[in-house]
Design brief:
Layout (H helix, E strand, L loop, with lengths): L1 H22 L3 E6 L14 H7 L8 E3 L5 E3 L2 E6 L5 E6 L13 H12 L14 E8 L2 E6 L6 H4 L26 E7 L3 E6 L12 E6 L3 H10 L4 E2 L8 H5 L4 E16 L9 H9 L3 H9 L4 E2 L22 H10 L6 E7 L3 H15 L3 E7 L2 H10 L5 E6 L20 H11 L4 H18 L2 E14 L2 E2 L16 E2 L2
Parallel strand pairs: 1-10, 14-15, 14-16
Antiparallel strand pairs: 2-3, 4-5, 5-7, 6-7, 8-9, 9-10, 11-17, 12-16, 12-17, 13-17, 18-19
Helix pairs in contact: 7-9, 8-10, 12-13
Length: 493
């Protein structure tokens, strides 16, 4: 009898252990390369902010889905006037912010007015430039009147920069973000990890995960080791391109090579000599062997681009031939620009692998045509301060992962310092046009202008190299927006 009691006890313990193990699968640890400077998407340009908070903590009127489509979010529906200038949004009811305050039309008005105000600190203030007025019709209805029709308006409202915040907590969202999403901010160990937990009072479909930890691992070797050891179960954008094949051969993991909106460029300061000379910019572009760059820095992962436009977009034009690799032509153009003996310059590089490795390759190629580029490695916060905000640079390498962002070259104060009235006019026409055929025509005209003007050397489209535990479901395979949307993520049963 004692024997059978012992056996039954052992079975019970085993079952309890199995149940506990299964229950533990409501937690997830994700690896991210860059730590965000703060956690307020309405007050910062860093993609790393949205990679943590977008759709998880904060929500907008609309949201961008996994396929790049515009979906309802805090607005359950909307209507547009015949002239395309008035949008009326019907809001979900019984929505609360994480601190218990109620969400209503006043919060929408506050957020949009704040974003397009003269003193706005929103990094994508241009998204809101078309807004004329925001009116509260009733607690669950908002009317937004535009200055002119804008074919991108609903899409723009789905950006992380357009999330809705409450006046009570807007000032402290950088360190303690409070949104309406399915997850709440839990903790942030600076330099290590950010933890979010399930919001039990979420107004919509509840999250399957109880907790998610974003662990900051910038080093590719450390990222590989963490995945192999199980310390991290998912790396939505895995930085160690050279070990992708290793994970593809391991049945414990799923490897997904998807697309992103990340146009990778060699940015040049267009108002700083000698980069204010078109022939110098053309010479630099022709000195770069895109295939060698992609093979050397990305282990063959990436699609060459000749303008600032994603290859998966229906309006894409392959313009790589406009600046094809031709070092002899580069030398000729430099001579015509008065730099037959070349010149010395600097190349400021942020931390990502594509930038650091790519910078070494490009510096070597520029050396072949007489340009000596001193490499200056920067941490991400330094890059944002010196290059992006301060425009204190000669050249840099970065991937612009924001969606639908061709218009950055039309901005007056953007870090490229590119100024072309004809291009700005094209962007205005695109924004005011809803007809798909006409928009495609205008998009292609704009691509050609940039390929000719070379405000930056266009390198390649950044791939989305996802590696995660094979039992994880719901992570995005492509990156239509800079996000790690966990709303549908779960462990397979």
């Amino acid at each position: 009898m004692k024997f059978w009691k012992s056996v039954l006890a052992g079975v019970a313990i085993a079952l309890l252990s199995s149940t506990a193990s299964f229950a533990a699968k409501t937690d997830l640890v994700l690896g991210i390369v860059l730590e965000p400077p703060h956690l307020d998407p309405t007050a910062g340009a860093a993609a790393a902010i949205d990679e943590v908070v977008y759709a998880n903590i904060f929500e907008g009127l609309t949201r961008i889905g996994a396929k790049g489509d515009v979906l309802p979010a805090l607005a359950e529906s909307w209507t547009m006037s015949g002239d395309g200038k008035i949008y009326t949004f019907k809001l979900h009811k019984d929505v609360k912010f994480h601190d218990g305050t109620a969400f209503d039309a006043e919060d929408v008005k506050f957020s949009l007015d704040r974003a397009h105000a003269d003193k706005s600190t929103n990094a994508q203030k241009g998204l809101f430039a078309a807004i004329d007025t925001v009116e509260v019709v009733d607690p669950l209805t908002v009317k937004v009147t535009l200055k002119q029709p804008n074919g991108d308006f609903l899409y723009n409202m789905g950006w992380g920069d357009a999330v809705i915040v409450a006046p009570e907590s807007a000032g402290t969202n950088k360190e303690k973000p409070i949104g309406t999403g399915p997850f709440k901010f839990d903790s942030w160990a600076k330099g290590s990890q950010i933890v979010i937990s399930k919001n039990p009072e979420y107004w919509g479909t509840p999250a399957a995960l109880e907790k998610a930890t974003f662990r900051v691992i910038p080093d590719p070797a450390a990222a590989t080791a963490a995945l192999m050891a199980g310390d991290v179960q998912a790396f939505p954008v895995f930085p160690s391109y050279e070990t992708i094949a290793q994970f593809q051969a391991d049945p414990r993991f799923k490897v997904v090579i998807g697309t992103t909106e990340g146009e990778t460029v060699l940015g040049m300061n267009n108002k700083k000599p000698p980069f204010d000379n078109l022939k110098v910019r053309q010479a630099i572009a022709h000195a770069i062997d895109r295939k060698a760059l992609i093979d050397g820095a990305m282990f063959g992962l990436g699609t060459p681009i000749g303008s600032f436009f994603p290859p998966h977009h229906p309006a894409y034009l392959d313009l790589t031939s406009e600046t094809a690799y031709d070092p002899e032509l580069s030398k000729k153009l430099l001579a015509e620009a008065g730099h037959a003996d070349g010149f010395k310059t600097t190349l400021k590089l942020p931390p990502p692998t594509y930038a650091r490795r790519g910078g070494e390759i490009i510096a070597a190629e520029l050396r072949e045509i007489g340009i000596e580029a001193e490499i200056i490695p920067l941490e991400w916060a330094q890059w944002l301060e010196q290059v992006f905000k301060g425009k204190d640079y000669d050249m840099t390498i970065v991937s612009h992962t924001e969606p639908n962002d061709l218009n950055i070259f039309a901005r007056d104060d953007y870090y490229f310092n590119y100024d072309n009235p004809a291009f700005r006019d094209l962007i205005k026409q695109i924004e005011a046009t809803s007809d798909a055929e006409k928009r495609t025509e205008l998009y292609q005209q704009a691509q050609k202008v940039l390929a000719t003007d070379v405000p930056a050397a266009f390198l390649f489209q950044l791939p989305k190299t996802g590696v995660w535990d094979a039992k994880i479901e719901g992570l995005w395979e492509n990156g239509p927006i800079q996000a790690n949307d966990l709303t549908a993520v779960k462990w397979a049963e």
